[in-house]
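Sorry, I am new here, but would you mind making up a protein's amino acid sequence and the tokens describing how it folds?
***
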Amino acid sequence: MSDPETLTAQVVNILRHDKFIARHNFAIGSLRIWPRAYHDVADAINAGKIRVGSSVSAGNAAEYDMRFAVMDVSENLNVLDERDRAVVFHEATHAHLDMLAFGEHSGYENEAMGYIAEALYTLAAKGRDVPSHPIRVVAKPIAAKVYAGMYAIPQADVAALTAAISAVPAYSRMPRYTSNGL
């Protein structure tokens, strides 16, 4: 179990120094992510604009709450485990989008960005994925296209991924997100 300062330092270190984020450069419409964006999230954490906590919901390894600019990660975060690091990048993608102050936008597309970032990280790190997870099954081939150099996610891929996301009860209740710039 990590103390809050250690957990925060681990998250910041992952966001600043992980070599596998070099291919994180993609967009769904006006939602965009690029490698340096994760450094910006780390800077926001260090400045106290984003708080790192450990109050994750049962069954989750990490979460980001746009209402409070809080990234919660499991106290059992293993910085050597590529799945744990992939989930940190998923949530940091949400944090970055929150920082951009888009206002109200599609929660499903916001989640799609996170799942693509997670799958892309797993692909780059040659890590183990979770093939039975229905959202990740759809995100993985999209991430492979990004890994090969695609930037703008085609609408057909966005539609398939957002349909998978909206089918999950936890997400179906949140079709709209509000990113307020912290």
